[in-house]
Amino acid sequence: MQRMKDILLNLCKISAVSGDERYARPVVESLKEVADGVKQLSGGSIVAYKKCGQPGAKRIMLDAHLDQIGLMVKSIDERGFVHFFNHAGVDFKILPGAEVKIFGKKEILGVISAKPPHLLTAEEREKPIKTENMTIDTGLPVEKVKELVQVGDKIALNCNTALLLNHCVTGRSLDNRAGCAVLVSVLEKIKNQPLNVDVYVVLSAGEEFGGFGAVAATQEIRPDVAVVLDVSHADMPSARSEDCGELGKGVMIGISPVLDRALCDEMISLAEARRIPYQREAMGSATYTNSDGIVPLCGGIPTALLSIPQRYMHTPQEVISMEDMVSVRDLLLAYLMKEVNL
Amino acid sequence: MNFFLKQLTEIGGLSGGEQKVCRFLEERLADRFEYTTDRIGNLYVHSGGFFPNDIKLMITAHMDEVGLMITHITKDGYLKFQSVGGIDERILPGKLVYIGEKKIPGVIGSLAIHLQTKVQREKVTEMKDLFIDIGARDKEEAENHVSVGDHAYFSSPSEDLGDLMKAKALDDRVGCAVLMELLEELPSANFTAVFTTREEIGCYGAMAAASAVKPRYAIVLEGTTASDIGETDEADEVCVVGKGPVLSFMDNGAIYDRKFLQLACRVAERKGIPYQLKRAVAGGNEAGRIQKIGTGCHVLAISLPCRYIHGPVSVADEKDMLALKQLAAAIIEELK
Fold first, then answer.
1. Is residue A115 part of a domain?
2. A207 three-state secondary structure
3. Which of A131, A134, A164, A167 should one mutate to test binding to chain B, selecting the residue with the greatest count of B CBs within 10 A?
4. Which of A108, A117, A244 sits opposite B88 (nearest CB)?
5. DSSP states of A98-131
6. Cis (ω within 30 of 0) for the bond into A176?
7. What's the CATH number for B3-65+168-335?
8. Of the residues A158, A183, A206, the one at which a domain ends
9. What is the pLDDT of residue A340?
10. In this predicted complex, what is the ipTM?
11. What's the per-residue H, E or C state across chain B?
12. B135/B47 Cα distance (integer angstroms)
């Protein structure tokens, strides 16, 4: 678990707002040590593979998105404050007082400012501040801001990573660096392990913006089976328990009309057989993950969805449990090894 | 940024829990100054060495900051809280805090945006519906790490922000830093410095200090709200970061001594020190309380313009801090 924690914390240091995954290059370098080959596709997704060497071996794609939610520069005002769009799913209510990093000509630290309470009318005070009424304070004079920042530049949330009780971790972009960390850990574990399948690990781009990265990677790899790793809501106060999994209770195995039921059942049987803690996550329609885009490609791809329960999704302080990440990894390893025993 | 100020702002010290700030200041005073503390935690230092019988000038800066107090632990192990001092509840969700003596990290949680109904999304999540998550499985486990009554403070690291600086608790560690430097740089000036407690919940420390010291003049060193942000109208700015220390003529607690204010402006102009007048009757500080103690006292507030005070991170200009110190020193000289 310690090793996986290190992988996760390292991945969290990277900023990769959807559409700007170029900041993820160090990941490519680190994967070279554990995979047979690594390449970055033109859409930004990173593919690392380990082939078993057998002709006609089954191709299994493991996907976790690397991109994270973020903001985008809309304009710069006369005082040098940066106005922005909410570009990819950030919870706007948590923005005032949050710290950000603008990816201009260089990385610029900023604080999100909003009108102070004494200037608000009573009516305004009862409503959340809208994104269009917030700005970013960089502490730089307007000329300097205009020199370094351009309309369209990406902005990432900045935050502190901290370890909580019970192997819980808090930080930003745990959605879905947690999934990425599990896949890196899987690659490490199977590095010297003989397999009967070819494994393609995809750290995909653009999930928070429609999932274009996974779609492109799938068409490149043409897998026989896909397993998507993402985060899903964990229990938290004032949430309806039927909407959430439970933190620390193990991998959430997705059941949805989009997903392959036989593959889901197989995952559940494996979890039962290996005593891996798991929970069922039933969804009546689409999954709102990369699975939805992958399933209809290449003549149809049987796909499973494994989720890591997460609290406070799309805030700078998301919370996940390392124990859940371990159960996702163990289930994936069991699935890949199962093919060996056949 | 100024290293002493960085260290000061990174210490947690809510109203009533200023001991660590006080100890840090005492360490710096040790061996060089005679100092004393009182029953409610104020720290007193006299610049001329020993305390004289008749104190003419008192300068205060408060050691406490706003934050949260744990009021309840739920059966599921979440912590409920109230604010200590005025905090805009809209800035709380999604922030990391440290709790209690053991500095237990916790996240201020709220329902994820995806799970909120349309009505919930358009409402501010009230403080009573927020909670802190430390990762505990249940109440019993949480109680092993945190107790009701523990303080929680924001976790923002202090560092440069462009040409400015950002930190939590600039209100009023900046006053503490300036007051310390005045003591060090003006060893023969005749004033009593008081690092006060519990300002954010009603200026208890300053009231106790004023009644004990009974000064004829008092200067309050503060951080005050600057709204020179985004597209705010110039009329609503209150004051502007980078344009020098702020002198108040009136706020919600005090009508300042007109002659004292004029003296401060005159001194600043003569010495070429930048300053600005606070362009709003808003907020309040220790001056309002000190003014009313005993037979009354001439009060003046000199404040550092700070954006986003009472939040997890505030922004100010180090040049303003330097000018604030110069102005205070020149006024001390003038009152001699």
1. yes
2. helix
3. A164
4. A117
5. -EEEEESSSEEEEEEE---GGGS-HHHHTSPPPG
6. yes
7. 3.40.630.10
8. A158
9. 64
10. 0.89
11. CCHHHHHHHHCCCECCCCHHHHHHHHHHHCCCCCEEECCCCCEEEECCCCCCCCCCEEEEEECCECEEEEEEECCCCCEEEEEECCCCHHHCCCCEEEECCCCEEEEEECCCHHHCCHHHHCCCCCHHHCEEECCCCCHHHHHCCCCCCCEEEECCCCEEECCEEEECCHHHHHHHHHHHHHHHHCCCCCCEEEEECCCCCCCHHHHHHHHHHCCCEEEEEEEEECCCCCCCCHHHCCCCCCCCCEECCECCCCECCHHHHHHHHHHHHHHCCCCEECCCCCCCCCHHHHCCCCCCCEEEEEEEEEECCCCCCEEECHHHHHHHHHHHHHHHHHHC
12. 48
| CB burial of residue B272 (10 Å; 0-12, 13-18, 19+) | exposed
Q: Report how many Cβ contacts below 8 Å link chain A to chain B.
A: 196
Instruction: Kindly give the parts of chain A with pLDDT less than 50.
Output: 342
- Greatest alpha-carbon span in chain B: 66
Residue A5 burial class via C-beta count within 10 angstroms: exposed 0-12, middle 13-18, buried 19 and up: middle
Query: Residue A137 belongs to a domain with what CATH number?
Result: 2.40.30.40
Structural domain boundaries, residue A125: 71-158
Question: How many CB atoms are located within 10 Å of the residue B51 CB?
Answer: 14
- Can you list the residues of chain B whose pLDDT is less than 50? none
Instruction: Read off the tokens for A32.
Output: 């070279």
- Residue A193 falls in which region: left (phi positive, over 0), alpha (psi -120 to 50) or beta: beta
CA distance B264 to chain A (A): 27
> What is d(CA A326, CA A108) in angstroms, rounded to the nearest whole number?
35
Number of domains composing chain A: 2
Residue A114 lies in a domain: yes
Enter the tokens of residue A232: 């899903």
Q: What share of chain A is helix, strand, coil (3-state, %, to 5)?
A: 35, 30, 40
Measured distance CA(B179)–CA(A188) in Å, rounded: 56
- Work out the minimum CA distance from B165 to partner chain A, whole angstroms: 7
Q: What's the pLDDT at A98?
A: 92
User: Taking a contact as any Cβ pair under 8 Å apart, which residues of chain A between 127 and 186 contact chain B?
Assistant: 127-129, 133-135, 137-141, 144, 159-160, 162-168, 170
Task: Check residue A245 and report its DSSP letter.
Answer: B
Q: Where are the domains of chain B?
A: 3-65+168-335, 67-154
Query: Minimal Cα–Cα distance from A224 to chain B, Å?
Result: 32
H or E element, residue A188 = helix A174-190
At B24, list the tokens. 């840090």
Q: Which two tokens stand for residue B332?
A: 């001390």
Q: Residue B177: which of B34, B316, B66, B36 has the closest Cα?
A: B316
Structure tokens at A341: 């025993």
CATH 2.40.30.40 fits B67-154, yes or no: yes
Nearest to A45 by CA among A200, A258, A254: A200
Cα A131 to chain center, whole Å? 23
Q: Are residues A150 and A254 in the same domain?
A: no
Cβ–Cβ contact A239 with B under 8 A: yes
Domain assignment present for residue A190? The answer is yes
pLDDT value for A342: 45
B142: exposed, middle or buried (Cβ count in 10 Å: 0-12, 13-18, 19+): buried
A106 touching B (Cβ < 8 Å): no
